[in-house]
Design a protein that fits this description.
The protein is built from one helix and eight strands. The chain is mainly β. The radius of gyration is 13 Å and the shape is globular.
Length: about 90
């Protein structure tokens, strides 16, 4: 089910992000963004309890760890402060 997968839209001109964590809608500010670095602010979101919260909990715990990004074809990779991949998202639109 596509709605159970995290989805993230980054609105560069507004320095905001929005999407779904796999269960709840989320949104927040982008603190830092350039051709290599990105930092997400604290997210606000709905508070529904889904049957399996494993993916939403992992997504929400990982987002604050993101410090940089890379694009490889249709995949957006988020890296932590040590340059390790902590999340990979696939372009869907």
């Amino acid at each position: 089910d596509r709605n159970s997968l995290p989805q993230l839209g980054i609105h560069v001109e507004k320095m905001r992000y929005s999407g779904r964590d796999g269960c709840n809608n989320i949104s927040g500010g982008v603190i830092e963004l350039d051709k290599q670095l990105i930092r997400f602010g604290i997210s606000a979101g709905t508070r529904m309890m889904c049957e399996d919260m494993t993916i939403p909990d992992q997504f929400n715990a990982t987002l604050p760890e993101v410090r940089s990004w890379e694009i490889h074809e249709n995949d957006l990779q988020f890296l932590d402060a040590d340059g390790r991949e902590v999340m990979q998202l696939h372009k869907i639109d």
